[in-house]
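As agreed, record minuted below.
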Amino acid sequence: MTKLSRRTVLAIALAATIGSAMPLGPAHAGNMRIAFGDLPGIESIQTLAAIERAKERGVGVELIILNDEDLAAQAIVGGQADVGIGAPYTLIQKVGVPIRLFAQISTLRFFPVVNSESYKSWKDLDGQEVAVQARGSGTEAVMLLMAKANGITLGKISYVPGSEVRRNALIQGTLKASIVDAANRRALEAEAPGKFTVLPVDNVSASDEALFATADYLKSNAADVDILVEELMKTGREITENPAVAVELRNKYKLLPDLGADGDKEIEEYYKETAEAGSLALNGGGTDAATGDFAFFSLAGQIEGDPATLKVDDFWDVSAIDRAVAKLGKK
């Protein structure tokens, strides 16, 4: 089975179990259409569980599974989806896309990985091809920032959606240098001990995933947005306090059934590492997240201007976060 057909099969399976990979069409009244710019994986359990809890509180949610974050943003702008997941700073500033981030989900925890038979250090990647998630993604920003920090210029940048897909390509040898999340880094270490080197990443603190929507949608659907943000915060707090909660939520809502029962151990280990790193946003991000993002994405060359002069309101709508923190308290 080719990679493309395998991803298609997985998308269909996910559609049947965690929502609907719906064709992009007109909205149904009262529904919130959320566009995932990737196949949901272990790192998505917090978000998927928050969505299920929002459904229990009366928010009608449809999931739309897309190939990358760019498509998710385009779906929001085109009116085929209501809420997207990503960190679309470049699109907001450089393309003038009329969207705003309204809640941070998690901060960046990505690991640049190279085949140790070909490369040993960042210097070895000068002029070499690397693969990242998508144009404007956090994975691309990390690679560009670290290239700048190490005084090198990357060669061709390929866009390969899906951390698991990039991991498999590294194992198969079709990629020599890429970047993966924590779960797939551990999988590489287990599947091919000693074959890969994880390159160091220093001083990176920025949004990996955040919710975004148009200003009009946020204003017109404030009640539903508030519920989603509250559940996202509560889920993040519970998992950070006790990573085993991620497994409980996965089983309660029958999330990611393709992983099988063996996935529970991997999920708990992933969220234990995530909790220790403080990667899940407990208070929705907001102004604090925007400040860190401005510094990071400016250094990475994805947004322009002095980070100190960039305005939060040009990129974020923090009203739902403020209401949720007022209701739930601050952590």
Notes: Residues 1-29 have pLDDT under 50 and may be disordered.
